[in-house]
User: What shape does this take?
Amino acid sequence: MTVPAEKTSSLDERMDKYTVKFATREEDWGALDFQTKVNPNYRRAQIRYLGGGGTGAHNDPNIIPAANFTLSTMLLPAGCEGPLHKHHDVEEVFFVIQGQVTIIWEEDGVETERVLSPRDMIFCPPGMYRGLRNDTDGDALMLVMLGAGKPQLPTYPEGSPMEEKRKAMRRGM
Assistant: This one.
């Protein structure tokens, strides 16, 4: 799927439509609030640019709608983490801009970790459980890309607090 070139407006107007300035971005601390309710250490903010990312916030009027991938930044406060989760349908990239982030992969009950510093990146293939953690005493900022315009919501390890919360949300609890 490609974004059509709209030739009904001027080149300047089209360029303005697809330009996003940092000054217009908002830290969305609520996008992942359902996770924070399970564990306060899951607190982090999504700052969206292109598409809604893995949070499902695709109706945000402040983003450029995505056709083929999403791009956002994530602010991860000191001591906070993102729980293990899996995207079945998309690749995901984490690129550290500021601070240090520990990335966790889990497969068949075995976990491994890598610490990423500024300008380090990790590619996460579809179907791999991944999580992240800020073990420092300063904020970390990461660029996050997902390989679909509207990725499916992630799943969590069976029996984990996040999976139990997701099940309760589906039941309306």
